[in-house]
Amino acid sequence: MAVYTEVAFGEAAALLHRLSLGDLTELRGIQGGIENTNYFATTVRDGVAHEHVLTVFERLSFEQLPYYLHLMKYLAGQGIPVPEPAADERGEILHSVQGKPAAVVNKLRGHSELAPTEAHCRAVGDMLARMHLAGRGFEMSQPNLRGLPWWNETVPVVLPHLGESQAALIRTELAYQNHVAAGSAYTALPRGPVHADLFRDNVMFDDGELTGFFDFYFAGNDSFLFDLAVCLNDWCILHAADERDGQHDAGRARAMIAAYQAVRPLSMAERQLLPAMLRAGALRFWLSRLWDWHLPRDASMLKPHDPTHFERVLRERVRHAQALSASLLEEACVAA
Ligand SMILES: Nc1ncnc2c1ncn2[C@@H]1O[C@H](COP(=O)(O)OP(=O)(O)O)[C@@H](O)[C@H]1O
Ligand SMILES: N[C@@H](CCOP(=O)(O)O)C(=O)O
């Protein structure tokens, strides 16, 4: 259930009208998603039907939202397929519904691919690299709010809820990531606006064609390599109900990296730090899932994801990331 704020038909119609999107003909609450209230809205303008998504933000504030919405608008203007926030006659893209921040974006065609093939991973790698290149001209800046400083703050908060071996793993990994971040290779990583949560449920495909990236509400300025690692950890691993859960799938990973590199080749520092960033990407989501699980902010709204999946991914990465990266980069070079 993801309609926390009931929006009346008339209220939505007035907003869409003010945004010059036409006359509202249908408003349907979206059941997916866990953070915000989302509605699909159909309007008719000049006899043509258009589909939009109306989001009422339940977590992010009026002050936090401009970075995300302007980033989407900027990327859409650069030809990257992301939902474009609709502006009113004053050019404002952040609106208000029942006193809460709200936005209206175009609806992307298609559906998420939860069992991706190499072709899907190739399409994501290609578009991710294009998005990174396009984002370099975006002038606003905001750190990744789920980056290293947040990990340092949050690990002590979840530690009392962990068993001994989990506590040892999370402490050791955090120390390792602080050590990596203090090094010269890390400083040399190319940076810019990144999605930072580009999981399979945040990308649409229609008949095999990638139609867009969405849900930019964890975006921030960070290393491009971290963004790629987050994708590799979700798109290119086995999601199994057994001990293979979290193991990588070399074919899909190779396809994603090769497609990425065909657009934006990885620098020396990025090649060197791929193993560390695969571990960072696993730590990031293990930690946020632990935090949501043990310290729910509002139990009625959040359905926390299973943290143990990313614990397995992290253990797997700690054991194999070095060898995995070496083989993937070698194979990716051959494939590219
Ligand atoms: N621009 C969009 N185009 C098409 N579908 C969308 C769009 N935005 C959201 N959705 C749909 O709404 C669902 C919930 O959106 P999401 O951003 O993941 O919500 P939440 O932030 O609450 O987790 C998605 O799974 C998708 O089906
Ligand atoms: N991808 C994250 C959860 C982020 O929530 P979202 O529904 O807004 O994408 C995870 O899997 O832990």
Automatic annotation (TrEMBL):
Keywords: Amino-acid biosynthesis, ATP-binding, Kinase, Nucleotide-binding, Threonine biosynthesis, Transferase. It is an enzyme of class 2 (transferase). Pfam families: APH. It catalyses: L-homoserine + ATP = O-phospho-L-homoserine + ADP + H(+). CDD domains: HomoserineK_II. Its EC number is 2.7.1.39. The keyword Iron-sulfur does not apply. One of its GO terms (biological process) is threonine biosynthetic process. The keyword Kinase applies. GO terms for molecular function: ATP binding; homoserine kinase activity. Gene3D superfamilies: 3.90.1200.10, Phosphorylase Kinase, domain 1. Pathway: Amino-acid biosynthesis; L-threonine biosynthesis; L-threonine from L-aspartate: step 4/5. Residues 27-265 form the Aminoglycoside phosphotransferase domain. Belongs to the pseudomonas-type ThrB family. This is Homoserine kinase. The lineage of its organism: Bacteria, Pseudomonadati, Pseudomonadota, Betaproteobacteria, Burkholderiales.
